[in-house]
Amino acid sequence: MVFIVPSSFRIYSFSATHEPVLRVKPDSLVAFEIRDAFDGQLDLSGEYLSNIDVVDRGRINPATGPIWIEGAKPGHTIEVEVLNVEVGDRGFIGRRVFRILNDTIEANSFRIPVKPVIGVIGVAPPKGEASTMEQGDFGGNLDTQEITVGSKVLLPVWVEGGLLALGDVHASQGDGEVSGQGLEVSAKVKVRVKLHRGRILDKVVVDYGENLTILASSETLEDAVDEVLDAAKKLLQKAFKIDGQTALTLLSLASNLGISQIVNPKKTVKIKIPKNAFPIDLGILLNEYG
After folding, report:
1. Contacts of 64 (CB under 8 A, 6+ apart)
2. To which CATH superfamily is domain 2-196 assigned?
3. How far apart are CA 251 and CA 70, in angstroms?
4. Residues 148-181 pLDDT 10s
5. According to CATH, what is the number of the domain 204-288?
6. Distance between CA atoms of 45 and 54, rounded to whole angstroms?
7. Where are the domains of the chain?
8. Which of 56, 108, 131, 281 is buried most, with the most CB atoms less than 10 Å from its CB?
9. Whether pLDDT at 254 is above 50
């Protein structure tokens, strides 16, 4: 059975005060119907956006949800396995509208393969309210390439039930999101939601492809880099029972530091830890570390 969350159930902030629109057990399949980043307010019928200057800016970056995961408590981890992303047939970036046909973006004379990115994915933060434009250790507007089909996104749980929501899908987006946007589209995202009784880190971790990717967001790139390096060291120390200096040395030899986005209120950086060099047993860590 697949639970469907229509896009009419959407939020513009992450908060423990939001009422869940759905309650599911761990291992459930959920399909989120997602509006584009401008909440479906734009006319995409032409080559250029005609009404972008008159939209309601208070409706930017809607996220579908939130949903309550039964048994989720602070100190736990929600795993979101992205199984499939269906994107709309037209998307926009800046004032331009591009057609999507046969998994290809037709951008002038260029043809760019569709590789969907879930720009917003998160849970309620430990305190207060965070806009869906914001990002942090609750997730949020991370705009990270690795959050795509085939990824497993590990979100720390900060409040009971977690209150998971998704939004802001891009048909394609490069590292850095240098113009301020990916190709903004409506989408339907199918995920499997799992629950782990422990926690690897107080950070968002993405298991995708050949790497474990840790994310950190801060007001400056320098601070975000410091945060993500500290988290990566802690992960290696915990997994392999080594000291901090040894962990940093190993990271310098084999990991890759990168930028997810530089355009949001906080900048998001990532460090990719190759799984072939560092065979980390996530199952053990997720059950023993809180």
Report:
1. 5, 6, 7, 9, 10, 32, 33, 34, 35, 165, 166, 167
2. Acetamidase/Formamidase-like domains (2.60.120.580)
3. 36
4. 999 999 999 999 999 999 999 999 999 999 999 9
5. 3.10.28.20
6. 17
7. 2-196, 204-288
8. 131
9. yes
